Every structure is written in structure tokens, then in C-alpha cells.
Amino acid sequence: MSKFSKFMKANKVVKENATHPVTKSLCDENGKPLEWEFRHITSKENEEIREGCTIEVPITGKPNVYRQKLKTSLYIQRMLVASIVSPDLYDAELQDSYGVNTPEELLMALVDDPGEYNDLAAYVQNFQGFNVSFEDKVEEAKN
Questions:
Q1: Which of 2, 24, 103, 111 has the smallest C-beta neighbourhood within 10 Å, fewest atoms?
Q2: CA distances from 10 to 5, 75, 91, 128 (A)
Q3: Using one digit for the tens of pLDDT, what is the confidence trace for 107-122?
Q4: Which residues pair with 36 in a beta bridge?
């Protein structure tokens, strides 16, 4: 038996999808808000999203010197889109019904209440594991 057997992929816990009502403006026939489905994104997917939302900003007074700046709103929006399984934000018919052309635009059209959008962003960040500090994880592992 390998000393790494506990770390083999077969032993890794599969993260399940979750559902959550996102907006009160989209309801079923009984007036209950529709449940949206979310999936966990990988660290690699997260890094690709982050890199795609990072720009180089020149530092004033220092020619040819730049610093990186994360476009936070865009990063959160793209993380939300990557996390949402249902509704399918890439569906052309759904995009056409709202008169938009991208998944990001569709998300903004579906969740057009700023408070609900902020709640969605907080829910997805929590779902993706951004809510627990490393110290909290160490304390949990001790117990």
C-alpha cells in the first residue's frame, strides 16, 4: 500500500450541486421562487476566471511600471456564471427572450434587483468555500 493511498483520487469527496432560490421575480405556478442549481468550480477554473479579470494598471510617476488590479465586479459576475447550472445562461432562446447576447448579460437581466444580486453573490461565494478562513479550517480539523 502506497504512503499516499489516502490522497488518491478515489478517496476524494465529490462536491454535490446545490439549489437556492435567487429572485422573487421568477416564481412557479404557486408563487414560490424558482430554485436555481449551482455547481462547485475548481481551483483551476477560479484561477482562470481571476486572471481574465485582472488588468495591468500603470503606476503614476513610474514609467513602464505596472501593478495588477482585479476587476472585482467582473470577477464575481463570471464566477456566478461559471457556478450556475440551471437556468442555462448559455441558452440562445433564453438569451433572446431577454434581448441579450452573453451569459453575463442574461444573469444581470434575470436578477435585476441589486439586493438580490448581492445576496446571490454572497451565497455563491459561501458555496464555493470563500466563507471559511484557514484558521477556522484548522480548528475544525482539530475537533
A1: 2
A2: 9, 32, 34, 22
A3: 999 999 999 999 999 9
A4: 20
